[in-house]
Amino acid sequence: MSGTTDAAPDFLLLPDLAVRPLGGAVIWADDESFAEKENLIRPEAPGFRPATFGNKGQVYDGWETRRRRGPGGAAPAADDCDTAVVRLGVPGVVRGVVVDTAWFTGNYPPEISVDGLVVDGYPAAAEIAARTDWTPLVVRSKVSGDSANVFPVDRDDRVTHVRLRIHPDGGVARLRIHGEPKPDLRPVDSLPIDLAALESGGRVTDCSNRFYSQPLNLLLPDRSRVMGEGWETARRRDHGNDWVRVRLAGEGVPHLVEIDTSYYLFNSPGAATLTGIRADGTEIELLPRTALQPDTRHRLPIVAGEPVTEVRLDVYPDGGVARLRVIGTLTEAARERLRAELR
Questions:
Q1: Number of domains in the chain
Q2: Looking at the predicted structure, is the pLDDT value of residue 2 above 70?
Q3: Does residue 5 form part of some domain?
């Protein structure tokens, strides 16, 4: 398995389960002499300002460790490595990893490996790092400098944490862990939840257009802070409309939908509908065509009262939506299936 900068696999359309806005955290690293471990999961693309020096040298937007040395100044041993441990914002099945070495040209690690682990409860970070039952996700593989090194993962293990090892040392700008969210919903059981949220296990399966930004932004926690943190389509020049399809955390009965157009002032949709899709593929109207206002959180009741597994939001004709919330309750069958997946 090797990294490449040319491939654009389907897994890149899946959410980054480690990204900070989703709740990810870099909880432990054995070294961060030159640049902080927390940079690994920042949502924005890494930047660089040449000849910008701090007390520890050139400032890098990434995680950078010191140069390893063997005894008497010899080269490091073949198995020497530095390690960072990331708690995923949402547990899930990893389908692909991107190790981005942007701007690291003479100081990137020549090889990396990535492992996964399931952790119950809230043990200390050092305890997690010391565990010996990590499962390989990406075997030790070569990487290139100043590149987005892409690695597909062919495993169905659910993980809560990932471990990045760099062999033997160096700098990595970003670590992206793309996958299918599989959270533990047992604590909420039959309580109402946001069935569409990434942190509940919802995910975008398709959309008509992602010209300005990704539709998975719709399902992120918290409110957007700027226009670029939502989903915005290109301007349509035909008589059609844009849409996004979302697979819910499980079969559930929606009670309320929130369509948030915050920060979209002159480019919000004029109207929207919400359609529910049952397990057998048939459709039901959840929200009739409803006028939308700019920069507004629209909270709209749903009266259909039927279980669905997916929803489709249609916006007319185009524009931007910050967040989509589908508040409802999982069916008993869905709760049992989700519990079975965690056994």
A1: 2
A2: no
A3: no
